[in-house]
Structures are given as structure tokens and as C-alpha cells.
């Protein structure tokens, strides 16, 4: 190929990428930020200003919801890591060759089912007339049905369920690349289970752990269906506030400000997490 | 001896934990699916006997899903949207793969990270930001020229764009991973035999990428079909299935017809998942 042809083909290959990122990611976000910096002074008259952000700070319900969303998301991420790590380790290191593939596929099954159906399933299990409550009554452990739904625990269970696969998959793929000899060497040098885990396995799996945590955290903080369906009216999830501003109150300016706040807040958390763990986005999430 | 015994006990406990985890994974799905066959007006115990009414019955109050016009139209719109998203995102994913595997250009690593970003932006934010931009453009055009661009108002087109905006990251990653493993000497051999560039692409490289393209198309289709967060803000009067189901669940209260839909969707996506695993399996002929 001549140099000109090479350059032309590079431009042609770059064009779809550039259009996608520019028109659907960059410009919409700029538009969102611009909208959030607009204040309504009279009908159809707007002024530049930080009013929407000041409203956010002046209304405790709003920032409490954001803090609650963030702290519950961190909790869900931690739980997903604690519950998921042993499963990933089992799949990658302990299960036999054939069982490994099957277990991995089984882990992925809920991924193929929509959020809505998963939440629906939990509703059927947890509500007062649901399966667990009915079984408890039937076995005589309680006289009346128990409502397990519409509380924080139900939201956390549902969220952990929804996101745990995104924790397990990167963990399995990093642990898969780890040689068994490294673990054996650790034991031969006299390390116990805990020492080997702490000094060898966890440091090796760090990129996978960080990747899993980032994706899990972002998905949780941005989730909408699970907290609303399992938490009921008082779930106080920040995405619900965004929805209310946009659709119910038709206050797009404030909704855009909330959207930007959620994005900024989650990005800062992810950045801090990368900083603290000494990883970068390129060697964790972008690693395939 | 005692040591071996504690090890064995530990291992048994570990296996029990893994088993419990898989029960946890399966329980809600089994609950969602199995009540589709319960001959009752509510998706709850006690079990009233087996029925297929929630699929095929054509009268109220037990209107089966295949006679429920709103559910069927939701299914239809979901199909249309998912097919468009899959086609578009595989096309752009393929050009992205060639761009990042075969070409060198300034700031390549930076752009590669930019390509990943849409996947970690919360879906709700993708939805509102695209809604805001599209409405701004449509309003500006209307104020200036008096022309209404209905494509930029909430509707199927915007839903497709919204889902495409992050699903393309998935297809790009899958196809890039496959293209990286391609042995360049295959292309060189074809060139030496006198094949043109287009012919090499068409007969050697694209067939090699086909499994990844099919698999990523299936993933894109399913992710689109299931998507709720982004779609919620961009949807017009033509609601896809997830939105219709959600409205029903939140407003009307659920009847087992929702279980029937869940069952059909789970079986459908399970079959598609099997297809995607089958096409990605290494070819026994050693290709």
C-alpha cells in the first residue's frame, strides 16, 4: 500500500470509532453538564449558574441519598468480593478440568437473564406470600408469613446477586493464569493456608480483584431496577432521584446535575480505589 | 494424620459452600420460571396443579402470554431493537478491532481506554445524556428551521443509539481478542499467491473472525433485549418487553403471565448462549 492509501484506510477505520465516541459519549456528556449549569429564572428564560448544585447541597434528602447509594454500593462490592473469591478460586484452581468449564458456564447463567426477571424471582421468594415465608409457615416455624422484602437487606441480597458474576469472571481469568507451582512453593516454604493466601494468591490476583471491584461498584451505584423493586418506595437510591427529576418533575436541569454528580462521585471512588491498590485502568478492566 | 483430617474437613466445607452458592444463583430463576406452570391467579405457593394456561389460554382472567397483545408487541419491539443493535455494534466492533490490532497511531492506548469507558458509565446516565443531546438538537432545529425531526424524540431510534453506545464496547473487546490471535502469515501467503486485498479480507480474515462476530452479535442481542436502565429514558410509545413487564409488575401487580414470559425468555437466551458457546469452540479441523 502507498502511504496515501494507508492514511486513507486509517481514517476510514478511525471514523466509526470517532463518530461513536464523539456523538454518543462525549457530546451527550458535555450537553448534560451544560444543561446542569443552567438556571431557570422565568418561563423559557435561563441563566448560567450553579443553582442546581446548590439546591443539591441545600437539600439533605438529596445528598443523603447519594451517600447512602455510595456506601451501600461499597458494601455490596465488598460482599461480592468476599463471597465470590472462594468460588472463583474453586473454579480456577480446585475443580477438575471438565468440571471447571461447566461450573464457569453455570456462573454465567444469570448473566443471560434480565435484571427484571432476577428481581422478579427474588420478589417471589422473599415477599410475605412468597416461597420462603410460605415454607416457614408450612414447617410450623412461624404462625404468620414474614415480609422479607422492602428492606435494606433484601436490596443488598438482590444487588450482590445481580453483580457477583462481574466479580467472579475477572477473578477466574486472573487466577487461571497463576501457576500451581507458585502455590506449592508457598506451602513448601512452610506457609499455612492463610499465609499463602495473603502473601501469594491475593497479590497475584490483584488486577482481577480491582477489575471486578470497579465493574461491580459502577454497576451497583448505577443500578435502578433492583433497589426499586426489592426496596420498595423507601429504597432511596440515587438513580431513582434522577428518574424523578427527569420524568416525574420534568426538571431536566436538576436531573442533569444529579446525573453529573453520580458520574463524578463514582469516577472519583474508582480513581481512589485504583490509587490505593496501585493499579491502573489499563491493566485491570481493559485487560483481555 | 490429624492434619490430613482437618484438611479433608476443610475441603468438605469448601465444597458445601460452593454448592450453596450455586443454589443461591439458581433459586430466584427457578422461582421466576416455575410459577408459570402453577394453576393459580397469583405467582405464589401453594401449588395448585400444573397448567399451560399462562402461555396459551385466550380468555381473561388467565390470559396467556401468546394472546396478550401488549406483551406480544413488546416482544416484537425488543426483537427489532436488539437486531438493529446487534448488527450495528458488530459492524463497528469489527472496524474497531482492525483499528486497534492492525494500526499504529498517536495516543493509541488513550483511545483504547476511551473505548472501554462506555461500559462503566452507569446506564441511567447514558440514557439521560443522549436524551438531553437529542432533544437539544431537535429543539434547535425546530426553532431555527421549523422542522420537527421525530427521530430525535424518544422512540426506537434513540433506544437503539443508547444501547449501541455501550454494547459496542463489548463487541469490540470480543472481536479484538480474536483478531489478536490471528496468524499474519496466512494473509501473507494469500498475497503471495496473488490475491487482492479485498479478496484476502473476504476469504481469509473475516472467516477467521466469524465465530467472534457471531458470539458477540448474540451477546449484543441479549444485552439489548434485557436492557432496562438506558432504555427507560429513551423509550417512546413503542415499549420493548422489559419496559412493558416492569409497568405491569409495578402498577398492575404480577400474575403468572409474567412468569410465563420469564420462562420463555430464559429458555430463549439459554439456547442463544449455547449457540454462542458452540461457535466459539475451537474447530476440530485445526483451523
UniProtKB/TrEMBL annotation, chain A:
What InterPro entries does the record tag this protein with?
MetI-like (IPR000515), MetI-like_sf (IPR035906)
Sequence ranges assigned to domain ABC transmembrane type-1 in this UniProt record: 66-273
Location comes to: Cell membrane
Q: Which UniProt keywords apply?
A: Cell membrane, Membrane, Transmembrane, Transmembrane helix, Transport
Kindly list the residue ranges recorded as spanning the membrane.
Answer: 70-91, 103-125, 153-172, 208-230, 250-274
Topology in the lipid bilayer is annotated as: Multi-pass membrane protein
Q: Which CDD domains match?
A: TM_PBP2
A single GO BP annotation from the record?
Answer: transmembrane transport
Highest taxon of source: Bacteria
Q: Name one GO cellular component term.
A: plasma membrane
What does the similarity note say?
A: Belongs to the binding-protein-dependent transport system permease family. CysTW subfamily.
The protein, known as: Spermidine/putrescine transport system permease protein
From TrEMBL, chain B:
Q: Which GO terms describe its biological process?
A: transmembrane transport
Where are the bilayer-spanning segments? 16-37, 75-99, 111-135, 155-179, 200-225, 257-279
Kindly give the SUPFAM superfamilies that the UniProt entry links to this protein. Answer: MetI-like
- UniProt-annotated location(s): Cell membrane
Stated membrane topology is: Multi-pass membrane protein
Keywords (alphabetical) are: Cell membrane, Membrane, Transmembrane, Transmembrane helix, Transport
Check the record and name the Pfam families matching this protein.
Answer: BPD_transp_1 (PF00528)
The cross-references to CDD domains, in alphabetical order and at most eight, read: TM_PBP2 (cd06261)
Identify the residues that the record assigns to the ABC transmembrane type-1 domain, covering every copy: 75-276
Q: Which superkingdom is the protein from? A: Bacteria
Extract one GO cellular component term from the record: plasma membrane
Protein family membership: Belongs to the binding-protein-dependent transport system permease family. CysTW subfamily.
- Name of the protein this chain belongs to: Spermidine/putrescine transport system permease protein
Write down the species: Rhodovulum kholense
